Protein: ABC transporter ATP-binding protein
Amino acid sequence: MAPPLLTLDGVSLSFAGVTALNALSFQVAEGEICALIGPNGAGKSSALNIVNGVYRADRGEIRFDGVALAARRPGDAARLGIGRTFQHNALFHRLTVIENVMAGLSRKGGTSFFESVFRFGRDAAERRRFRARAEEVLAFLGLAKEADRVVSTLSYGTQKRVDLARALVAEPKLLLLDEPMAGMNAEEKQAMARVTAEVNRQLGTTIVLIEHDVGIVLGLAHHVVVLDYGRKVADGRPDEVRDDPAVIEAYLGTVH
Ligand SMILES: Nc1ncnc2c1ncn2[C@@H]1O[C@H](COP(=O)(O)OP(=O)(O)OP(=O)(O)O)[C@@H](O)[C@H]1O
Structure:
């Protein structure tokens, strides 16, 4: 197995008495696609939010690329090379596709997001570089033709792809995808799964994703971690976890 890029070691988190994560430990190897699955409320989003620095663990340790992540501020994760997309699309709907993607680069240079988008930047050369980089990512994701379209005019599936472009533009080592296929029809889901596999294979990006569609997960992920009530109930290759009695039990009787 490749060395771990990400390690969660005994991570616990609770909200006013509700335990979201309970001594959770797992590792994500460099270069893999790891899926987090489990019933509603199992703690999947909380786990991503801890890695991303949105929440701070009550206990336990998180290591990324050999470094312990502690006492972080928002934005630190992006600077370290952790990108993410959101369950509820967080794009700027009145801006164009390329403006949204360029926003994903605003932490990289000396120019703020508003400067880079609204063109009163200190550095025109930096703006040109950002634009070229954004165009490259859009081309990779098959979105070159949509660059100047306003996001609100795009289909839901295309908006999700723009969200992915925005996360990828900063060249993250680790990409966190929170239900990238939620709300999609079967065809859109398959297309998103293909794009996700291409990002992983061609760009070498390590991916952790949350997905409810077990069929998609089994076809896409190299590694599956199953959560239930904030605890890990299974961890292994898709074929190993599929028939695990603990996984079947976690899912039985749960309304999705
Ligand atoms: N900000 C918060 N404030 C209070 N409770 C929270 C918060 N975030 C999560 N929780 C609680 O923590 C537990 C785990 O929630 P989490 O959203 O991580 O689960 P999940 O597996 O991602 O669920 P879903 O599949 O429904 O998105 C739940 O009981 C949830 O209600």
Remarks:
- Residues 91-171 form one domain.
- The first helix runs from residue 44 to 51.
- The chain has two domains: 1-81+174-193+205-256, 91-171.
- The pocket of adenosine-5'-triphosphate is lined by residues 15, 18, 20, 38, 40-46 (CB under 6 Å).
